[in-house]
Every structure is written in structure tokens, then in C-alpha cells.
Amino acid sequence: MGFFDRIFERPTKSKDMAKERLRLVLIHDRSSVSPQFLEMIKGDLIEVITRYMDIDERNMNVNLTKDEESCSLVASIPIIRVKRGTG
Amino acid sequence: MGEALVITSGKGGVGKTTTTANVGAALAMLGHQVLLVDADIGLRNLDVVMGLEHRIVYDLVDVVEGLCKYRQAIIKDKRIDGLYLLPAAQTRDKTAVNPRQMRKLIGELKDEYEYILIDCPAGIEQGFRNAVAGADRAVIVTTPEVAAVRDADRIIGLLEAEDLRSPQLIINRIRANMVKRGDMMDISDMIDILAIGLLGVVPEDEYIVTSTNKGEPAVLNSVSRAGQAYRNIARRIKGEEVPLLPLESEEGFIKRLFKVFGR
Ligand SMILES: Nc1ncnc2c1ncn2[C@@H]1O[C@H](COP(=O)(O)OP(=O)(O)OP(=O)(O)O)[C@@H](O)[C@H]1O
Ligand SMILES: [Mg+2]
After folding, report:
1. Contacts of residue B145 in chain A, CB cutoff 8 Å?
2. Which of B149, B181, B183 sits opposite A22 (nearest CB)?
């Protein structure tokens, strides 16, 4: 939104609302289309993180959370031990 | 050996049948042998849009069930040379045909026609799977609305699962004046979000209604903007590079008309 739009508080154009709503709904649709999606991310996360630490894979949690304005990937990964000399 | 294109969308009523009729007619007008296949079994429309409804004897289901040869079911358009229609059955439903039968039939038809355009029903059920089964390429029609673009995205995923990669997008019913004042998503918004190639943009055009009333494709009208857009899409399907028509509001169009007549 441009400077003047903000000053005069012009309401958001409906096209921008459409774009934003579409962006959010597609994040959700695309990630829930295949149930393997989160598993794939989980697998890749494990691969990267175990280079640096031992983790409790069985109690690890990866989820998408969504509210009206944003969508985030939330991972909870219990650490068992941090490897030495990786810092 | 011809090529089969499925015209699909996910969301209903966005212009699949209109697109099939007009792009098919335009390809035939460019000198090709074109067959339109109505895969919307139980809700056939393409025959009416083409003005061929009174000439149907047999239909797609009759052919698949072996009640007749496909030559007996296919209707030749009398106005446009090289244009043919294989109508859908009206009194049956989507389960009367399966994807394997469709693949076989379209495969045989590709020996006789250069382009086969398959008009897909709305939805993602068996009707969709039947329509895409024999296709080599997919064209997705959408309108500049959240629900239609969202469904188009879903369809892109499903087409990939059917091994139909890199589908192309047609954005239908765009209104220049609404885009200009920021009340309609523009072309680049939708292309960015869907991340697929653009085959064409068709403006909202009252003449589409007139032409379906008459049962005569809009591409036969040289003044219709939608007709012009569909003629360009046909050339792009052939592989020609054709620039997009500039988006013009109705006012701009009238000025342009005056220019044409003023010459
Ligand atoms: N560019 C356009 N300008 C104006 N009207 C249009 C345009 N495109 C389509 N329409 C109108 O929109 C309606 C729906 O079009 P059409 O039947 O082609 O959609 P469809 O996707 O085949 O629908 P269905 O999902 O029911 O098969 C029709 O009344 C048609 O005349
Ligand atoms: Mg239709």
C-alpha cells in the first residue's frame, strides 16, 4: 500500500483481500492435500537436526497451526543430548 | 497422430464448455480436424452451446458400450469445416463409463483428428477422472475469484497425480474496469499464486450470452472481444507466439470501434 493510501486510510482494495485470503487458504489446502506432507517435513528435519544433537524422535511433533492472519509450522523436538564440538 | 486436451476447472460454471466450443471452433477455422468430446455425462451442454442438439442420434456411452461405431455418434458441424462433436449421454450418469474405456476411445480417435478437446464436468469425482484419462495436455479454466482459483490449485495437484504435468491456465471473465480500480485480481496475481503457464485471458463479454442463445460459437463474430481472445488461444495451442490482448474497459473498446469505423 502506498504512502498516500495509508495517510488517507483508504480501505484495503478488495483485490488485495482476495489475494491474501487465497494465499492463506492455499497454504492450508496444499499442506493437507497429502497426509504424507508433514511426515516428509518431519523426516527432513530429523536428518538435519541429528547432525547436531540426539533427539527423541518418537515424541517429536510437527504441525501446521492456522489463525485468521497467519499460518505457521510449529515443531516441538525433545533434545536428548547435544553433540560436542559442533558450535 | 492427434493430440487430446482436457478442459477442466474444479469449480463449476467458470466457462469450460464455452472454452471448449470456442477454442475448438477456432482451431477448425485455422484448418484443423477438430473433435469436441462432451465428457459431462448426465448434464450435457456442449451440444446446445454449439447449436447441434437436434442432430444427436447416438452418444458417448452408446459408443463405449458398443451399441454403435463412433462414426455414427459423431456429428459434423455444418458451418465450420473440420469441426465435429461427440455428445455426452443425457440420461445416464458418470459411472456409465470408466477411465480405462475413455483412454482407449480417445486413443483411437487421435488417429482421425488433429485436436481432441474434452469438456470436463465440474468436480473431482469419476467424471473428472474419465475426462482426463485419455488427455495428453490439460487446460485449466478459472475466473478471477478466490473460490475458483482455489479449486484450480486443487485440480493442478490432481492432474499431477494423473501424470498430466504443466497444465496451462485460461483466466475467464476478467473485467478491465474492475481490475483497474483494484476490485478484481489481475493476471499476474493469479499466475504467481498458482505458478503455472498462462494460455490466455478472456474478457467478460455479453456476446458470449448472445452466441450461446444462438447456438453459434463467439469466434465466428469478428467484433467480439472474447471471440478474439479465443482465436488467440487456439493459435497458442498450436505453438504460435501471440501477445495477450490488452485489457480494455468497455469504454476503451467503444473508442477502438470508432477508430476502426473512422478509417
Ligand atoms: N467470457 C464470458 N463472458 C460472459 N459470460 C460468460 C463468459 N464465459 C462464460 N460465460 C457464461 O457463464 C456461464 C457458464 O459457462 P459454461 O457453461 O461454459 O461453464 P462450465 O464451466 O462449462 O460450467 P459447468 O461446470 O456447469 O459445466 C454460461 O452462462 C456462459 O454463457
Ligand atoms: Mg460445462
Report:
1. 18
2. B149
Residue A24 falls inside a structural domain: yes
Q: Is residue A6 part of a domain?
A: no
- Contact (CB<8Å) B150/A30: no
Q: Residue A1 falls within a domain, yes or no?
A: no
Q: Which residues contact A13 (CB under 8 A, 6 or more apart)?
A: B181, B182, B183
Residue nearest to atom 23 of ligand 1 (CA): B13
Amino acid at B227: G
Provide the number of structural domains found in chain A. 1
Question: What pTM did the predictor assign?
Answer: 0.84
Task: With respect to residue A70, please indicate whether it lies within any of the assigned structural domains.
Answer: yes
C-alpha cell at position A29: 489446502
In testing the pocket of ligand 1, which one of B9, B11, B17 has its CB within 8 Å of the most ligand atoms? Answer: B17
Residues from chain A contacting residue B182 (CB–CB below 8 Å): 13-16
Taking Cα atoms as reference points, which of B159, B99, B86, B161 lies closest to residue B134?
A: B99
ipTM: 0.78
Nearest CA to ligand 1 atom 31: B209
Residue at grid coordinates 450435457: B44
Per-residue pLDDT of chain B (263 residues; tens, 9 = 90+): 899 999 999 899 999 999 999 999 999 999 999 999 999 999 999 999 999 999 999 999 999 999 999 999 999 999 999 999 999 999 888 889 999 999 999 999 999 999 999 999 999 999 999 999 999 999 999 999 999 999 999 999 999 989 898 999 999 999 999 999 999 999 999 999 999 999 999 999 999 999 999 999 999 999 999 999 999 999 999 999 999 988 875 555 555 555 555 44
Domains within chain B, CATH numbers bracketed = 3-260 (3.40.50.300)
Nearest CA-CA partner of B172 in B156, B187, B193: B187
Print the domain residue range for A37: 13-82
Strands (E), B109-232: 115-119, 137-142, 168-174, 197-203
How far away is chain B from the Cα of A45, in angstroms, using its nearest Cα? 24
A19–B193 C-beta distance less than 8 A = yes
Contact criterion met (CB < 8 Å) for B185 and A23: no
